Amino acid sequence: MGSSGGQFLSPECVAVDPLGFILVGDSGNARVQIFQPDGALVRVFGKRGAGPGKIRWISGLHVTPDMDIIVTDFKNHCMQIF
């Protein structure tokens, strides 16, 4: 548990993209972390808050065939595309 890259406070959901990359929605850190199929951390995005591009509590995560990342935010009452 923690807030460094590759650590989680409250992982809520997981998605796998068409290339096999693993996305983990971490509500405790208000971010999404993306890992290679071998588990290596590739990217982290998300900042806590309200408004466009901000996350308060991730409740769902989906990757479209076009590689858009859809995040459902329970506390902000919205869905965002990243």
From TrEMBL:
Residue ranges of NHL repeats: 1-38, 42-82
GO molecular function, one term: zinc ion binding
Pfam families: NHL
SUPFAM superfamilies in the record: NHL repeat
GO biological process, one term: proteasome-mediated ubiquitin-dependent protein catabolic process
Repeat recorded as keyword: yes
InterPro entries per UniProt: 6-blade_b-propeller_TolB-like, NHL_repeat, TRIM-NHL_E3_ligases
Keywords: Repeat
PROSITE patterns xrefs: NHL (PS51125)
Name used for this protein in its record: Uncharacterized protein
Taxonomic source organism: Timema poppense
